[in-house]
Every structure is written in C-alpha cells, then in structure tokens.
Design brief:
By secondary structure, the protein is of the alpha+beta class. The chain is built from seven helices and four strands. The strands form two sheets. The chain has a two-stranded antiparallel sheet. A two-stranded antiparallel sheet has the order 3-4. The two termini are 30 Å apart.
C-alpha cells in the first residue's frame, strides 16, 4: 500500500478489523483473562449479530475488584457482587467512529474525551477498533518521526 500523508489517513487504514470482543453475560474474570492474553485494554461488548452494546475497559475491571469490599454501601444484588458479568460494569453509551472517518478526527475525539479507543461501527455492527496507540503509530510513521510511538504512551 502506498504511503499516505497524515491528513489523508482514514480510520479503516489503521483499525484492528477483528478485535477481541465479549458477550454481555461473560464473567469479568474471563474478560480480564482475555485482556491479559490479547494485551488489549478495551473489550467491545456485542450481541450475536455483532451489534455494539457497550465496552468494558481495564479500569472497569479494576473498579469491579473493589465492589465486594463495598457491599455494605452498595444497593446491588449480592449475586452481582460475587460474580459480576460484562453487562454489570460496561459503559453503555459508547463513543464510536466509522471506518471512513479521517484518522485525525478520530484521534482528536479520543484526546478531547480522554478515552483510549473507539469502536468502529458500520451499519450498526462492530467492524473494528482504533486505539490511541494506533493513532500515535500512524502519525509517527506518516510524519517520518524517528521516535517510536510507544515512547509517547505509558
């Protein structure tokens, strides 16, 4: 593929087309294991038709680890405290993007909203994800910078 200028890049040029996903009833322990094995920090929650229902992040899982200790202060069903599922902690109002969106616009949206990834949706179905790392790596390459994109991410 010919090298594109930074301003000409689209989300589809850098997105992960087959991201790891979870279903709403997946136990969080399994979701955490999937994050560990895939090295991702964000898991889109989808139904059988790949319609996006929400997103579970590493922060959601970390916060969920504290909920049993807060049981006396939460009005949650005890079952949810003992074995939370993806649906119990996911963010439901997810900020998304489209494959044809300019990468600069998607990156700006992530920066402004302080989020690390955007699910990529087309015809109401998840078709990929784009992360802050994808954006940084693409612009580092497009600008012919010698510093690796990883140097800016921690």
């Amino acid at each position: 593929m010919p090298r594109k200028e930074a301003g000409a890049l689209k989300v589809s040029d850098v997105m992960t087309s087959a991201p790891a996903v979870v279903e709403p009833d997946m136990p969080l322990t399994e979701a955490a294991g999937l994050m560990r094995t895939t090295g991702c920090r964000h898991l889109p929650v989808v139904d059988k038709s790949r319609h996006l229902l929400g997103i579970v992040t590493d922060r959601d899982i970390t916060h969920a680890a504290f909920t049993p200790h807060l049981a006396d202060y939460l009005a949650w069903d005890p079952h949810r405290l003992k074995s939370p599922r993806a649906r119990d902690v996911m963010t439901r109002s997810v900020i998304t993007t489209h494959p044809g969106t300019p990468l600069l616009q998607a990156g700006l949206r992530m920066f402004q909203r302080r989020i690390g990834s955007l699910p990529v949706v087309q015809d109401r179905r998840l078709v990929g994800t784009v992360t802050d790392h994808d954006v940084a790596a693409a612009f580092t390459e497009a600008q012919h910078l010698e510093t690796a994109a990883d140097a800016f991410l921690w």
